[in-house]
Amino acid sequence: MKKLVLLALVATTSIAMADGAALFAKCAGCHGADGKTKALGKSDPIAGKAAADVVKDLEGYKAGTLNKHGMGGVMKGQANMSADDMKALGEYISKLAK
């Protein structure tokens, strides 16, 4: 039973990471494939940013209450995703090497 639970946990984590990677493909155009590019020359690199901070920023952009570096309008459209997708994306970004 313990092996089954562990296997399910590993599978779930792998799926979340795969989803995060797929979601990040949309981000890579501005932030770079490694997350180290200043988007449109304005934003800070996002590689290695804490997952909770990524989620918080995405929630702010989605709500229209965040406008870091004047990118609120662009990011509002990009942040139109579910809470689960935001979490998966945050986890993926947090694991990118700085």
Describe the structure.
By secondary structure, the chain is mainly α. The protein has four helices and no strands. The longest helix has 30 residues, at 2-31. It is globular and about 30 Å long.
CATH architecture: Orthogonal Bundle
Proportion in helices: 55-70%
What is the residue-averaged pLDDT?
87
The global form is globular
CATH fold-level topology: Cytochrome Bc1 Complex, Chain D, domain 2
CATH top level label = Mainly Alpha
Total number of distinct structural domains: 1
Rounded to the nearest angstrom, the radius of gyration is 14 Å
Residues in β-strands, percent? under 5%
Low-confidence stretches: 4-16
Reported for the largest beta sheet, the result is: none
The run of helices and strands is HHHH
Distance between termini? 38 Å
Q: Tally of extended strands?
A: 0
Number of helices: 4
CATH superfamily: Cytochrome c-like domain
Give the class from helix and strand content and strand pairing.
Answer: mainly alpha
Features:
mainly alpha; 4 helices
Short description:
The protein has 98 residues and is mostly helical. It is built from 4 helices and no strands. Residues 4-16 have low confidence and may be disordered.
Topology:
Blueprint (H helix, E strand, L loop, with lengths): L1 H30 L19 H13 L8 H7 L4 H12 L4
Helix pairs in contact: 1-4, 2-3, 2-4
